[in-house]
Automatic annotation (TrEMBL):
TPR repeats lie at residues 325-358. It comes from Schwartzia succinivorans DSM 10502. This is Glycosyltransferase involved in cell wall bisynthesis. Residues 5-102 form the Glycosyltransferase 2-like domain. InterPro entries: Glyco_trans_2-like (IPR001173), Nucleotide-diphossugar_trans (IPR029044), TPR-like_helical_dom_sf (IPR011990), TPR_rpt (IPR019734). Pfam families: Glycos_transf_2 (PF00535). Keywords: TPR repeat, Transferase. One of its GO terms (molecular function) is transferase activity.
Length: 485
């Protein structure tokens, strides 16, 4: 059994090294099709041991991918994008799965979970879908579609794509710094395709997704309503049109009745889907209808703990787990407003147990714990976080929320993310911090900000940071010590 790894690229010098390292764990037969890179992509691919082919970009992803398949020699093809990868454990699972299904003739591809991560925000989870990136090298298996290309089979015998729940592909292509450029590119290709071959029903869903991510919610509602009527959406995303509709109506500040109608449409189609009720609760929160928000948040959380009816689509991706931390966060804020500190702490902790890298939730918890003994705070954080791996995340939040002792504790576990000035300051050695600031020529504006924000020094007193002609130096130093003490 031989494997060929394929990829199409353009200006992927940042992502390609990881792709190459990942594929080398699975095969040495790597096909890289370059569509016009202007950076070091081609050189990286060649040095990495890949066979590089050139294909002029014609605005059609399927054509470029099929060109790559034509150069594949393996029995199986791995066609991950340059910004996709398997974990080390995932690579081992790939080999096990191929050995398992290689002799099963009707299985011509493997469908896996597709996890979108934001690399710009500490690889924070965005959402999940399904993709077929592993398939047999057969002449009847080719891609179709200029954008959102789909693998289609023209096999002369019964075949199937096997869903394998034990394998996930991780994708960083929706990270914040690149998503806007990709969306504009995809929209242009979609509109050009429509003009060339006329409208197709499946276009409406993809256009709605594009407009939604581009924050054009009016157009989103227009196209997603059509997609709901047509019921043409990718496998595993059957609930997505209703979620997009609900969120777009909320962001358009539509009447509450219209939002609730969309929620009920979703629940009628897919009963027990807590995602719809939670989104409705977020809309109530946005509208400052806190009583309704509280009721719906609790209802949504309760729904999420119940088993769905058997009629639910088995592969449908439910985004509830991505929404629950926010639900607990909002309930925590409500509890804090009611002066129920213990309940608020418990709710914030629940939220962080589900998504510990939500800095805004941690900030809420730390503000609530202001004045609590530092050792108790550290004990709580150690139970939630890996103190070494997460120290870089914890320190800025602790500094922002006035937990200087705790920040100093975790900073020692980093690779020196603080300046000596900050270390002295957090340790309470204010005179040493001031002396160091003066000796090292620290920007006075930055020093003034520190004093105003952390020591509550009135702006009028910051003038003493500046030397004045004829001023008694001993008196000035005495005043500086007072500022830092």
């Amino acid at each position: 059994m031989k494997i060929t790894a394929c990829v199409i690229v353009k200006n992927e010098e940042k992502n390609l090294p990881r792709w190459l390292d990942c594929m080398k764990k699975l095969t040495r037969d790597m096909v890289v099709v370059d569509t016009g890179s202007e950076d070091n992509t081609v050189e990286i691919a060649e040095k990495g041991g890949a066979k590089v082919f050139h294909f002029p970009w014609v605005g059609d992803f399927a054509k470029a991918k099929n060109f790559a398949i034509d150069h594949a020699k393996g029995d199986w093809i791995l066609f991950l994008d340059a910004d996709e990868y398997f974990t080390d454990e995932g690579c081992r699972t790939v080999l096990e799965l191929l050995r398992k299904y290689d002799s099963v003739r009707e299985v011509i591809g493997l469908m896996t979970l597709w996890v979108n991560l934001d690399a710009d925000r500490g690889y924070r989870y965005i959402n999940t879908g399904y993709q077929i990136r592993i398939f047999r090298n057969k002449p009847f298996l080719r891609y179709h579609g200029a954008v959102h290309e789909v693998l289609k089979s023209g096999a002369p015998y019964p075949t199937r794509m096997q869903f394998v729940k034990e394998l996930s592909i991780y994708h960083t292509g929706y990270s914040e710094h690149i998503i806007h450029q990709k969306l504009q590119r995809n929209l242009e290709i979609l509109l050009a395709e429509q003009k060339r071959r006329g409208h197709q029903p499946s276009d409406d869903y993809y256009l709605a997704e594009c407009y939604y991510d581009m924050k054009d919610y009016k157009r989103t509602v227009e196209y997603i309503r059509k997609a709901i009527d047509e019921e043409l959406v990718p496998v595993g995303r059957e609930n997505r049109p209703y979620s997009i509709l609900i969120q777009s109506l909320i962001l358009l500040d539509a009447p509450r009745e219209e939002i609730e109608k969309a929620v009920q449409m979703g629940l009628a189609k897919y009963p027990g889907t807590a995602e719809f009720r939670l989104l409705s609760a977020f809309g109530a929160w946005r509208g400052k209808d806190y009583l309704r928000a509280e009721a719906e948040l609790n209802e949504g959380i309760a729904m999420s703990g119940k088993k769905k009816p058997e009629t639910a689509v088995s592969l449908m991706v439910d985004e509830t787990k991505n929404l629950i931390p926010t639900a607990y966060w909002y309930l925590g804020q409500l509890a804090a407003w009611k002066k129920d500190r213990q309940a608020a702490v418990e709710l914030y902790v629940k939220a962080l147990q589900m998504n510990k890298h939500r800095s805004e939730i941690l900030q809420s918890l730390m503000r609530l714990l202001k004045g609590v003994d530092a050792l108790d705070v550290i004990e709580m954080l150690d139970a939630l976080y890996d103190k070494k791996a997460d120290a870089v995340f914890l320190v800025p939040v602790l500094m922002q929320t006035g937990h200087s002792k705790e920040a100093f504790y975790y900073e020692r576990l980093t690779d020196g993310m603080m300046t000596d000035f900050t270390r002295f300051f957090l340790a309470g050695r204010y005179e040493a911090a001031g002396a160091l600031a003066v000796d090292e020529g620290m920007a006075l504006s930055g020093l003034g900000y520190w004093l105003t924000e952390t020591k509550n020094v009135p702006p009028a007193e910051l003038s003493m940071l500046l030397p004045s002609k004829g001023e008694d130096e001993e008196k000035r130093q005495k005043n500086l010590r007072r500022l830092f003490s």
